[in-house]
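During the no-cost extension, the postdoctoral fellow (Dr. R.K.) reprocessed legacy sequence entries with the updated structure-token encoder. One reprocessed record is reproduced below for audit purposes.
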Amino acid sequence: MAIAEDESEFNYDEDSDQGPHNWGDIKPEWFRCKNGTMQSPIDLLNHRVQIVSNLGGLQINYTPSNATLKNRGHDIKLELIANSSYLQINGTQYVLKQLHWHSPSEHTIDGKRLDLELHLVHETPSGETAVIGILYKTGLPDLFLSLLRKDLEAISTSTGEERSVGVIDPRMIQFNKMHYYRYIGSLTTPPCDENITWTIVREVKFVSKEQIELLRVAVHDVSYFHILLIFYYKCLICNINLSQPNYY
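Re-encoded structure tokens follow.
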């Protein structure tokens, strides 16, 4: 499932002809951005979720891999070279292909928007996509981003710039695998393809102001204020304990 890479094709300026409200008119194959019925992101409303406690923890097997960091203009993408890391859902293995960041967060929880959102994008050989979303609020520095600081600084001046970062271990992105929201939605950028399996981790992690600023500077800040005003209601299934706080 291809995600548009060229920043010049779309942007996040609500007043632009290439802004979010016009994405569906830019290319015929992007029609779902305008007419889709399962579009992401959404507002995760705890009072509307269906608790399914027997889902169990996330079945993840991540391993180190060489990786490339790329400034895509609308975000920063870390692409893994090896196909050895995967997420398993209902017996199907989704290989971890890349991860990228959005600030502020695209998903909200009970109407609250967080400071940062990390997407770990997984795919099957047949093109099915599953994304894990991790939300962050301002606080202590994030260890994984700290490891990438020099590389992020190196690609911050030019859209399209790539940099090999050597071996990266995605296991260093530590998060609670037991409590999460799950729903079927879409890609959050063109072509906005649907039937994407979303898993949003309930626990909110920390990231420093400096790290958020570095990510914003790298993409000229503009793309990080994409706010979709309309959230389509989804039937959510969750493996969470609502008595435990998100800590946001």
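The CA atoms of residues 70 and 216 lie 14 Å apart. The chain is about 10% helix and 35% strand. The remaining legacy entries will be reprocessed before the final report is submitted.
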